[in-house]
């Protein structure tokens, strides 16, 4: 294609509005946040030093990593089970599986968190039912703790974990599976020794997406954790709005971006972007 | 031809996961019908009072109208910006395209809470300049939502452009069409579907946006998700259940309609 002057002018004119918009409304203020992390309350590396020494901040980081790891295992396993049926089931099974994946996917995170509150809270569906059949006398504590956070986050992330798995399962060669069965391998053995290894790239992609999403999660932990199992994102919110310490909130944000950036680089080293859709 | 189908164990596990996925959505239905003022299962009689309060309580109605307004403005803004940018990329294939597209997709990749802090910084620093734009104003929220939705709109429009045959544009160019004519009379009519989808997705994402909205609003710009959030954190208001049921029903209807349309297209 010719790179004439008017071509370059046209491209610049068409692309400029969005680029300017994002530079002014996103890149510039992000640099401002980075500046906060070095200047508030006093100039220097004090906030980053605090990150390394403050016990509260460290316990929140460790809790976030632990919850993210558990949620990743739960979501990828559950997503695997339903994706097998979505991709390889009979036509009716496929429609039903797709419905169960896409309906929660399109419903807002608040509605879904609220659904879990309605199920798990002390006067919720599960406790009311267990008490009415006389199975328990006191309500079980199912929300406002880590259990509730893990359940709610896994529920949110399962549909996201499904997509990379589905694309891996769609692209594998069915004849290999039929050959294994034809040679006398049992269903179980075919699944574990042929099917699962062939979807490895999907599993890695799905696990990394789930893990990265869980690290920055805000709404679900804040509602289902009830302030008792604070994760990084909620800590940032608290540092900015409740105990105004903008410098620390900004420093945590910067660390989170760097960490997620490193994970994304890892993701693209193992998986081509095309395999994720 | 034989096919490899999931066995009984796989099916049983998939049913469990499906139940897990649908359970919280079904749980809000009984709660929405409770006659009590607090979150509780209905015991005996059912009531529609929480559905009525959605229309009668001005707080809910105001928030719904505000969210509609913000959704429409931010959807128009992000679709127009995404469209012009994508046209530039597709028509001129400039150098550094990959880097520029990567930059545009940043708000989609960066953890939402960091984008929220960033937009909070932006809106508080411009707040002093005017009274109608900045922290806790509806225009500020609409702009912030556009930042968050424009990557999604750009991806959708770029994907639909990538399926377009370049020769129709070359023909128009050979016949002497200007850049404006090529864009508006040749390319855009062929990606109508992608543009409309981008606008709709931007609207939906803005309509349900909460992560960023929490950081940039306090008492004036109370969007619908923000009001739900307040009701969820303090004293759980069963009107949220009624609203959730309505939103779930709309989602299910839209998904069914969409699958009927794509099926008809596939069979035609």
Q: What does this entry show, briefly?
A:
With 277 residues, chain A is mainly alpha-helical.
Written overview of the protein:
The complex is a heterodimer of chains A (277) and B (268). Chain A is mainly α. Chain A has two domains: 1-39; 45-276, MetI-like fold, CATH 1.10.3720.10. Chain A contains 13 helices and no strands. In chain A, helix 1 packs across helix 13 and helix 5 packs across helix 7. The model of chain A has no long low-confidence stretch (mean pLDDT 88). With 268 residues, chain B is mostly helical. Chain B has a domain at 65-204: MetI-like fold, CATH 1.10.3720.10. In chain B, 75% of the residues lie in helices and 0% in strands. Chain B is built from 13 helices and no strands. Chain B has helices spanning 8-32, 49-56, 58-92, 97-104, 106-109, 112-126, 138-162, 166-174, 179-190, 192-207, 211-216, 224-233, 239-267. In chain B, helix 8 (166-174) runs antiparallel to helix 9 (179-190). The model of chain B has no long low-confidence stretch (mean pLDDT 90). Classes of the chains: A mainly alpha (277), B mainly alpha (268). Chain A: InterPro entries: MetI-like, MetI-like_sf. Chain A: It holds the Pfam family BPD_transp_1. Chain A: The chain crosses the membrane at residues 67-87, 99-119, 147-166, 203-226, 246-268. Chain A: Its main location: membrane. Chain A: Belongs to the binding-protein-dependent transport system permease family. CysTW subfamily.
């Amino acid at each position: 294609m010719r790179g004439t002057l008017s071509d370059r002018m046209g491209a610049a004119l068409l692309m400029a509005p969005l680029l300017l918009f994002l530079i002014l409304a996103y890149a510039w203020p992000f640099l401002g946040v980075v500046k906060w992390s070095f200047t508030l309350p006093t100039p220097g590396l004090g906030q980053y030093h605090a990150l390394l020494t403050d016990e509260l901040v460290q316990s929140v980081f460790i809790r976030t990593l632990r919850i993210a790891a558990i949620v990743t295992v739960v979501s990828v396993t559950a997503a695997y089970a339903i994706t097998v049926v979505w991709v390889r089931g009979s036509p009716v099974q496929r429609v039903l599986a797709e419905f169960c994946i896409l309906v929660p996917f399109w419903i807002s995170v608040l509605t879904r968190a609220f659904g879990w509150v309605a199920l798990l809270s002390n006067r919720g569906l599960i406790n009311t039912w267990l008490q009415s059949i006389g199975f328990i006398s006191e309500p079980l504590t199912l929300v406002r703790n880590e259990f509730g956070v893990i359940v709610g986050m896994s529920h949110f992330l399962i549909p996201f974990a499904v997509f990379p798995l589905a694309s891996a399962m769609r692209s594998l060669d069915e004849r290999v599976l039929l050959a294994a069965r034809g040679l006398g391998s049992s269903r179980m053995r075919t699944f574990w020794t042929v099917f699962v290894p062939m979807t490895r790239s999907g599993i890695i992609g799905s696990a990394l997406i789930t893990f990265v999403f869980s690290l920055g999660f805000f709404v679900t932990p804040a509602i289902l954790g009830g302030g008792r199992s604070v994760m990084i994102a909620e800590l940032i919110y608290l540092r900015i709005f409740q105990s105004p310490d903008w410098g620390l909130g900004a420093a945590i944000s910067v660390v989170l971006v760097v960490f997620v950036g490193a994970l994304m680089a890892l993701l693209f080293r193992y998986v081509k972007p095309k395999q994720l859709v | 031809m034989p096919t490899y189908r999931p066995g009984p164990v796989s099916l049983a596990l998939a049913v469990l996961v499906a139940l897990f996925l649908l359970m919280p959505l079904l749980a809000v239905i009984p709660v929405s019908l409770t006659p009590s003022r607090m979150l509780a299962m209905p015991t005996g009689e059912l009531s529609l009072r929480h559905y009525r309060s959605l229309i009668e309580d001005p707080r809910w109605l105001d928030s719904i109208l505000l969210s509609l307004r913000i959704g429409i403005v931010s959807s128009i803004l992000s679709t127009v910006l995404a469209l012009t940018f994508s046209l530039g990329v597709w028509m001129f294939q400039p150098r550094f395209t990959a880097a520029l597209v990567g930059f545009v997709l940043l708000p989609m990749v960066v953890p939402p809470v960091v984008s929220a802090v960033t937009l909070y910084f932006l809106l508080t620093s411009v707040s002093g300049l005017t009274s109608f734009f900045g922290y806790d104003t509806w225009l500020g929220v609409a702009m912030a939502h556009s930042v968050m939705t424009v990557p999604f709109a750009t991806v959708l429009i770029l994907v639909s452009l990538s399926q377009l045959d370049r020769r129709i544009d070359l023909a128009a160019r050979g016949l002497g069409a200007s850049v404006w004519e090529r864009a508006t009379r040749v390319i855009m009519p062929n990606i109508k579907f992608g543009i409309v989808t981008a606008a709709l997705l931007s609207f939906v994402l803005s309509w349900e946006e909460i992560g960023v909205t929490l950081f940039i609003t306090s008492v004036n710009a109370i969007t619908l998700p923000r009001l739900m959030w307040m009701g969820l954190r303090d004293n759980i208001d069963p009107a949220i259940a009624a609203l959730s049921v309505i939103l779930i029903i709309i989602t299910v209807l839209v998904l069914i309609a969409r699958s009927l349309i794509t099926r008809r297209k596939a069979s035609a």
